[in-house]
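Entry 14. Two folds queued back to back today. First construct below, sequence then structure tokens.
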Amino acid sequence: MGRAQDLLEKAMNNMKDLSENSDFGERINSGLDKLDAQKDKFFFQSLAGLPSANMLFKATEKMTSDANEQNMAEIEKIIKEIEDKADAPGTVLT
């Protein structure tokens, strides 16, 4: 498994730990579903996904220590960026 996939997996594990949070659980689970659809794409098998995976990991670490709206919004923003980048032309093998 590549470094980007390792970091993404760690971020997703952090999110799974947060999924029981009554304030953010539904949004966390939605994010996990979106990431699950992205994790095996070429984007995360190459170095291209490393910066995004690292940003997400750091954001989930922050959310784990301080669960608040600002940190949740940051996670959602990064997930959206990951979806956009992972599905962009030139980031998949044909």
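Second construct, same run, same settings:
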Amino acid sequence: MKKYKLKKKPTILLIFCVCILFLYTFNVTSSRYMGSIIGEVDDVLGVPILGLENPEFTYSKENILPGYTDEADFYVINYDDENTNEVLMKYYLKIEIDKEIPLKIELTDENGNEVKLSEEGRSEEWELPYDKEMRTKYHLKISWNKEDNSYTYAGSTVNLKIDVIATQVVEAQNEVG
């Protein structure tokens, strides 16, 4: 019977030592990957804000014909009723027409400078200021050349969609080694 007790004591002691070692290792390892944030989330994270001044801005015209011309203004802003953008971002405009109507789209900024659009209707990118309000006016001119007598789309309705698309700029950070 004494032999049996001798075998049982080392096994219990071994299990106890393994548990202590596991708890110590887990505690040290988890402390490297766990952290906590103290305070309000708004105190830690910046608030990105960007959009059209009139979010319901739509452009829709019925019964257009060759020779049709129209103009509209819209504004891109980086603030709302409560906040101003707090994140460094770049943005571009994307203008889409819902049909293959042979329309010419011209876009200018508030200084009268032409904004070039790609074939997909994408503009160049601009940096969006943060921590100060920005309101940028854009002027849109839509026209259908009179000489283009393709009456395939005559009498159509034009629906134009403008999207403001932004990406956050991540500044390179130097690692201290």
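Quick look at the second one. Confidence is low (pLDDT under 50) at residues 173-177. The chain has two domains: 1-35, 46-168.
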